[in-house]
Structures are given as C-alpha cells and as structure tokens.
Amino acid sequence: MKNCNQFKKLEICVCGLGYVGLPIAIEFAKIFNVVGFDTDKLRIKELKNNYDRTAEIASQKLDGCGITFVSEAGLISRCNVFIITVPTPINNFNKPDLRFLINASQTISRVLKKNDFVIYESTVYPGVTEDECLPILEQNSGLKVNKDFWLGYSPERINPGDTYNRIDNIVKITSGSNREAANFVDELYKKIIKVGTHKAPSIKIAEAAKVIENIQRDLNIALINELSMLFKELDLNTNEILKAAGSKWNFMPFEPGLVGGHCIGVDPYYLTHKASEIGFHPELILAGRRTNDNMPDFIAKILIRHMIKSNKSFINGPVLILGMTFKENCRDIRNSKVFQLRDKIIQYGLEVDLYDKLADYDTVKLNYGFNKIENLDENKYQAIILAVKHDYIKAMTMKEIRAYGKVGCIVFDLKNVFPHDEVDICL
Amino acid sequence: MKNCNQFKKLEICVCGLGYVGLPIAIEFAKIFNVVGFDTDKLRIKELKNNYDRTAEIASQKLDGCGITFVSEAGLISRCNVFIITVPTPINNFNKPDLRFLINASQTISRVLKKNDFVIYESTVYPGVTEDECLPILEQNSGLKVNKDFWLGYSPERINPGDTYNRIDNIVKITSGSNREAANFVDELYKKIIKVGTHKAPSIKIAEAAKVIENIQRDLNIALINELSMLFKELDLNTNEILKAAGSKWNFMPFEPGLVGGHCIGVDPYYLTHKASEIGFHPELILAGRRTNDNMPDFIAKILIRHMIKSNKSFINGPVLILGMTFKENCRDIRNSKVFQLRDKIIQYGLEVDLYDKLADYDTVKLNYGFNKIENLDENKYQAIILAVKHDYIKAMTMKEIRAYGKVGCIVFDLKNVFPHDEVDICL
Fold first, then answer.
1. Would the pTM count as exceeding 0.90?
2. Distances from the Cα of A377 to the Cα of A339, A371, A413, B75, angstroms
3. Which end of chain B has fewer CB atoms surrounding its CB within 10 Å, N or C?
C-alpha cells in the first residue's frame, strides 16, 4: 500500500484533458511527474504547442509545465496513479452515457500493475465507480482491489470561466476503496488543494455528494424560472421581486435564465436514472429539469408577443442572439440552450443570427452544422436577445447594441444586464 | 398627505397581536403612541398582565411598554395609522383563508378617517392588498385611496424562536399605494428597523417578494427530503452526503425534516392559488409541497421497518415523539407535522405519546383534542423519535433519552442531533 513516504515515487497519469483534466494535471505537475493522456490527437498537438482551446490555462502556464502529453495508451504504462477525468454526458434520451468512463477504465485496466492507484473524478450516480468501473479494472487486469491495487473517487469541482474559484481554493471531496486508500487519496489531493479536502466515509457518499450539488443548483434556477414565467403572466417584473426578496438575510440570489452545459443540466439525470432502477420516482428533480428545458420556448413566446404588440407588423430582418456559450466568460457551447432558443424562434418563421466572439467557431460548425456570425452588421436586426452575461457584453452600451438593430428593434435582456428602462423586455 | 414632519402626531394601531403584531407594537411604542388591538379577549388580558404566551416578548419588556391593549374596536378610532398583522392561513383544502384579513379590513374601514394610513403586513399573493382589502376599506368608509387615505404594504419577516435575527436587524420591505405613500411607509419603518428598509416599486412587487421567500425555503427543504428518501432506499446516510456536499462554497446547507408552521408550509399555496386563477399551473412549487407533506408517512415507514428488523417481534409500549412544535425553540404547535407523524404511526396499530415541555399544554388540547404527556416515565417506550431540535433536547444525553425506553428501544434521530453511532436510525 502506498503511503505518504512514497509520494516521491509517484508518476501520475491524468486521463482526459478537458476542462477538468488539464487544470488537475497542471497542479500535480508542480510536484510530480505527470503524463497527460487524451485520445483526441488534435488536442494533444495543441497542448504540446502550449495552446488550450478551452481558454482555461494560459499559454505561458502550459509552456514549461513539465507534463508529457500523449495520445497513445501504451505511453502511460509507466505511471502508477491514474486519475480519470473524462466526461459523463447524457444521450439524446437524457440517459447517462458511461462510454467515456468505460473506455477509460478499459484503457487503464490494460496497463494496471500491482500497487497502482485508480482515482475517478467524473460526476456519476452512487455506485458507478465500484459497480461499473471497478469490475472492468479487475477483470481485464486480473488484479484485485484492496489487495493488488486501490480505488479512489474525488469528484471534480472545476467551475469553468470562474476566475475566483479555482482548483486550488475549492475544497475537494476525497474517498477510497478502504480506509488506507481514502487516506492516500486525501493526502495526495491535499498536496495541490491549498484550502484542504473533505474526506468522505465511502466512495458512494462522495459520488452522491457531488451529484446533488448541481441538482440543488438546477432546482433553484428552475424555481426562479417558474416564478418568472408566472410573474410575466401577472405582468410583474421578476428582477424587481428578486431584488426585494434578496433584502432578506437568507434569501438565495438565483437568477432566471437558460440552463445548459455539461453539469447542471446533466447531473440530475444521473441520479434519477439510478433512482428509477430501484423504483423510486423523484418528483422534484425531474420537475426542475422540465421547467428549465421549457425556458427557450417561453422566451421565444415572450419575444414574439412583444414584437407583435410593439410593431403591429413585423419589420424585416433576422433576430440576433448575442451570446452562445452555456455560461458567461466561458468558451464552451456544449449543450448550450441558446441553440434551442434559436430553433424555437425559427419555428415562428423568423431568421436567427447567433453571435459570440468567445464561442469557438469550429466547434459551433461541427456541433450544430451552421456558422456563427463573425462580424455584426449595423441596422440589420428586428430584435436582439442578450442571452449570456459575458463581461464583453456587459461592457457594451445600449447605444452600441441598438446600432445593430433597425428602427423599432426590440431588445430583450434575458440576464438583467441593463437597467430596465433601457431595454424593451426583461424577465 | 402625511410626511415625516407629522410623525410626532402619529397614533399607531397594531391590529392583531400574535407572533408578528406584538413585536411590531413593542418597537413602535418606543417612539409613538401605540394601541394594540386584538379580538382575543384572553390575549389582551394576558398582555395587560405582562404575559406573552408566545414567549417572544419577556414580561419585563411588556411591563411599562406603554402600549394600550384593547379588544374593543371602538377604542382604536383615535388612531391615524393602522398596521394589520393578522394571520393568513389556509383552509382544510389548502386554499387561502382571507377571513382574518377581510374582518380586519372591515373593522378598520369603520373607523377610517381622512388622512389616515392603512398598512398591511400579512403574507398574501400579489393583488390581495389592492384588489381584496382596498375595496373593503373604500366601500365602507366612503373614502378614496390616494386622495382621502393611503395604503401601504410591508411584509413581516418575524422569525419566531430566532434570538439572533430580531425585528430591528432584519431589513424590511416597504411599499405604498403611490410614491408619496411608499416614502411615508419607508420613513416610518426606518424609525424602528436599525438595518434599514428596501423600498419596493409597488405593493404587488412587495407582496410577491414576501411570498417567494418561503417558497424558496420550502422547495429547498423538499429537495433534501426527496433526496433523503432516495438515499434511504440506497442505504446511504443523507447527513454524511450533505456534510460532504457542504464542503463546496456554494452548496446550501438545508436539512431533511418535517415542514410545518404557518409560513413555509402555507405561503406556497397562496401563490399557486393566484396562479391557478390565470391558468398557470406551477410544477415545482406544488411538487415541493407534496414531498414535504409525505415526510410523516416516510418517517413512520422507516421506523416500523427498523423496529421489525431489530426486534423481530414488537416489544410492548408506546412510541414517544420528543418535540411537538413546528420549529426549534418555539412554543408554536400550529400546523406542526408532528401530529401527522403521530397519526401515521397509529395507523400501524401502535400507541404514541407526545412530549414537549415548550409546547403550550392548553393549545395542544384545544387544537388536537388530546393531552401531551406532562412527565416522562422511565423504561416505558419501544421507540423514541427526536423530532424537533430544541436546545433543551440537544442538551440531553443519549443515556438520559434511552432511560425512557425499554431494553431494545429504537432511537430515531430525525434532526441529526446526536452522533450517528449513538442512535439507531437517522436520515
């Protein structure tokens, strides 16, 4: 069994170099030998050239970070700690898609040796690490957990686009396949997490803790979205109501909006999937998902209502959606609900342009089959929706924004960025 | 129109002297002449004798507070500011019961004079003050709002049993029937609220803000309750999971438990009632209510399961529920879910004793038709449920608590008061 005295001999492999894996690899590389492994050859090539397309790690930080970036599984066999940071998405039917996790486990199982450690960071429902991944590791390697090798689970809490809460000042949950393994995982992460760790009593407790964090967030945003739908029908300004309620010491300041991305809108389905296996049908968790998924439809309806009321007949020109990523100050467009909003407006027979200078051009085309607008033309749009609260959008003036619209253009400020009397619609 | 210069001439009538009205009256009486009005003659008699049965205001504070306590409506006619602090409960079918509010409005309307002010503090749905109460005031008095008299709404944020958040250090929302009225209400409350006020742009915004505060709380507790039900089926300890999740900077520390009382479990029905009027059917708000209302049934089930598993056959003796009030360190038993829990256990054919030295003996008998236990006998119970986190219960040792049980007695700690290994069941 490894202990703290053996830390010097550790060779860490971080498997999956996305939003989660790369920052973890960078931190560990400050102390240990680290191999960064990803099956995406282009990503490895870019990282070797000190370019992080997620814009989370600056070029100068990559330069000389000491990580050996590889895309060949054979090159990770010299490592003795494997940290798995692959995505756990859902499929088109909102069911957990464990393929990345299973593939990664298979890859690791082929190089697993005696005394190695395998630590998972991916968000899962309680039981995935021990009941789904562990059998793959044991079967292919012929090794036994807690005898030949050890298992850990330490859920990632990376917050993309957040410059304040970074990996080294977010407390990290740790857990292991037995007490000694838990201690090892805990000591290991304490080396990189300045603010410390929380050692959970079991892997399943750690898995459950991670998945409920985003469920709580999803449900709270869903409540505010439901309230904003109701208050719109009652002709009351939701932002004013939230401001007043927010004067109470324990009111929690959530905002209405689109809920996308690969965490908040996805994790609830992981837990409800597990629940359905044992015949438990959560009312709240899925009600939250339904409400948040209805927001694009609601927003499109409010826009169209207002356009008809204001201009009597529609003026020509497309609708512009400003902001495409799933959250502010982040380049990630995966599972962004802006694309659903686009579809919903198109259903009314209007054209829609998307613009976001932060969103990755190639990824948009690859994922959604159409081009984002590269440059905005003035005097073009009959309506403009401010969909994402990027800093660069907050820095624009209403005059600048209205310049892209025609006379009578409707500005819909989804994110409460501008004073209410400067825009035509807000929630 | 009254303004700040006329404050000296104010005679304030506080109408309804319960958990909300009495503290408000006490604060205003430090500055103004105050008449405290309640139709409950016994309450008035007690207050005149410096006794507050809600235990919120100490006897020495009542002594010499200067309030004129009256139960005759004729005696309030000399007042020129009427503050209405009557309860807004729900009926047996979970529909808003506005009778107290309507009765109070009728009473005020009979004494309303030119230049008077009527301010409501009761929790309602948006529209009640202006659409339900105001017509009563105008019709009976023959006076017109914003011409002859003025209307205000300033929702109460009293937190019974909370010794830290008291009336003078909780920001208060203010609003009025027009700009001048709002300013007056705001200036008036600023006199007693040290930490200041939040002036809302309209009465309806203030009404909506108040009602969503408790909805947010109800839904968040409901989520934790739903999770605790699921995790119990998965044989995972919810408290351990919450502790781990709580290590994240933005996880909100709600606890599972019974949700009763006259605010959190009631206010959601006010907003959903209004919503149903305009054909809007909130998914989340009512799902939260259903989940919280299911908790007594769930807790009884878990207890019975455990009793059967542990003791094979049931040992004799009743089940003891320790704690009866709707929240900790509070004497109020109205709408406490402990009584539903009692009913659910009785449905399994067991007997139940309730004990709570804080709960008011007479009120229990009056409201529920049975006596609470006045003294606990040792060696009597086959199971003990710790249902409320009163300070006096937290101060007991597990040995003291187990002494009331027979050999093999099951202790179910609903509120996570004791270490898990000292109790038999927790959530």
1. yes
2. 21, 15, 20, 72
3. N
